[in-house]
Every structure is written in C-alpha cells, then in structure tokens.
Amino acid sequence: MRRLSALVALLAATALPHTQADAAPFDGKWSVTQECEPAPGGARSFKWLYDANVTDGVLVGQYGTKDKPSSLTLTGRIQADGTAMLMASGFSGKAEYTLGFAQPGEKFSYPVSARFEGTRGTGVRTKGRTCRFSFVKV
Known about the structure:
Blueprint: H1 2-15, H2 20-23, E1 28-36, E2 46-55, E3 58-63, E4 71-77, E5 83-91, E6 107-117, E7 120-125, E8 131-137
Antiparallel strand pairs: 1-2, 1-8, 2-3, 3-4, 4-5, 5-6, 6-7, 7-8
C-alpha cells in the first residue's frame, strides 16, 4: 500500500505544470541592448537600450512610450531551460530607420528567438532585418 501511495504521489508531481520555482533563476530586472543592422533597401542601423522585468518567467520590456511612435514592447515566457520565443511589437519611428521606410506611427511586430543562461541572454530577430539582442540581469 505504501508503495502504491508513493507511486501515485510521484505521478501526480510529474504531471503538475511548471511552477514559479522553475522560472525563479530568470526573475528580476534585466538590461536589454537591441542592435539592428542596416537593412536591404537602405534603412539605417540603430541601437536601443531599455529595461525589462521578468516575473514568474514572463519577460516584459519597453523601449519608448508604449503605443507611441518609436516604441517597442518585448514580451514572452522564458522556459526553465532558458529558451524563449519573444514577440516584439510597437510603432515605427523615423522613416530612415524603418524597413520599407514606413511612416512614423505604423504598427509592426516580429518574433525574437532567445536563450538565457544565468545572468545573461542573447536573442535574434527571426524575420525581416537582422537585429541582435543581449540581456544582462542587473
């Protein structure tokens, strides 16, 4: 009977979803550096620095004023193994820095594949121009 109870407890524990403790190593404040290379067709390169917070494994970063031109919100869940598929969305700024020379205030979004390890992380934009992200826990 004890063996059966132990087996049931073990199966129940492995069936539970990931807990907050799984994400705890990544929780906290992060500094984000985003560098985008010049794009085919002439869009200029740029570099943005901004902060992000990770709470219960969910990253939320903000560049600029949310929902205003030249802004970006970066969101997504960091898995227990450090992998993350993040989503960047926002509104374009000056046309000379924007793919297709979009006018200021046009909405955009793109995925970012990232990997976190300890107090550092890296990421790359997976569609459109080349943008690299670096994350440092502060």
